[in-house]
Amino acid sequence: MATQDVYERPLQDLRISVTDRCNFRCVYCMPKEIFGSDYPFLARRELLSFEEITRLTRVFAEQGVRKLRITGGEPLVRKDLPELIEMLANIDGIDDITLTTNATLLPQHAQSLVDAGLNRVTVSLDAIDDDVFKAINDVNYPVQPVLDGIAAASEVGLNPVKVNMVVKRGMNEGQIVPMAEHFRNTPHILRYIEFMDVGNSNGWRLDDVITAAQIRDAIDAEWPIEPLDPNYTGEVASRYRYADGGGEIGIISSVSEPFCSTCTRARLASQGQLFTCLFAGKGHDLRTPLRDPSVDDAQLAAIIRDIWGNRRDRYSEMRTNNTAPIEATPLQWKVEMSHVGG
Ligand code: SAM
Ligand code: SF4
Ligand code: SF4
Q1: Helix or strand or coil: residue 179?
Q2: pLDDT grade, residue 231 (50/70/90)?
Q3: What are φ and ψ of residue 77, in 5° steps?
Q4: Which pTM value belongs to this model?
Q5: Is 123 helix (H, G, I), strand (E, B) or coil?
Q6: Domain boundaries, the chain
Q7: Which CATH number among 3.20.20.60, 3.40.50.1000, 3.40.50.300, 3.20.20.70 corresponds to the domain 13-340?
Q8: What 3-state class would DSSP assign to 124?
Q9: Which ligand 1 atom is the nearest neighbour of the CA of 22?
């Protein structure tokens, strides 16, 4: 049976960040003013090696983890990523491996990722208009190569491709309907994500959040949508289908309708810290025991059981309901999104 936390939430999913670097500077995630040329990114030796990630994942699988999501930074900037996918796909108990990517490097890697055992891919794309997209990624990157990346993933069988769009007031709310229009009647599933107060550098304000209800209404006004049942308990996206048969969309309402009660996700940062919540202020260092030759797998398992067994995180519920006492207050230092990868 899977290891459970204080609120009986099982440890089932592991998000693995393989790098803190990225070729984009999305304004809401890695703003240039902070992540500039002098930013102290991690040195190679500080990152967990593929062997270290695999060993840890095997221990996590023994504790109940079934699903892996590879993320970053931009995971495809980590050299030889398909090798890691292959190592992870061979672990007993792991039945689903997905990748979250900005898709810039997907065309050249899609086939080898699938051959290595990748099951699914999520592509982040926040606008279908070139000017809006360039202003968001802040490196003047156009939309078409991202669409090429989605097509490449689709061609090698990673269907349906999920496309994530973070919606932020003043940034891209005008793109809600054009994005829907673009991805309607395709096999891909567009998922709208409320802008979240992750990290400390993106200047989050509640006023910047376009809520799930507002997103739903904007689409419904153009093409009526109807709710669908979740695929499984704890699915983070609310699912809808176009009444005219144009396919499916999802809306992830982490701010307006939080889902902490079913949160089964652990996050491993690229230098080996374990975070039990996206909004955690502090990670648990697993790299030190991992690199200590006197620590065996059983001891690593005990460390992980202890961390998860004491987990009480429900940050989004507390932020949204504003129920005190708050164990992780919105004012304290929080890990950056580019560090734990969403
Ligand atoms: N670079 C990859 C990408 O963009 O897909 C993977 C890492 S990125 C941090 C993972 C996801 O987090 C992206 O879909 C991104 O849009 C989302 N994200 C980053 N900051 C966010 C925020 N403040 N609120 C909501 N989503 C955010
Ligand atoms: Fe990079 Fe992804 Fe963050 Fe954009 S959202 S800066 S692509 S890590
Ligand atoms: Fe999970 Fe933390 Fe998000 Fe709640 S706020 S759903 S506990 S990651």
Answers
A1: helix
A2: confident
A3: -80, -10
A4: 0.94
A5: strand
A6: 13-340
A7: 3.20.20.70
A8: strand
A9: 1
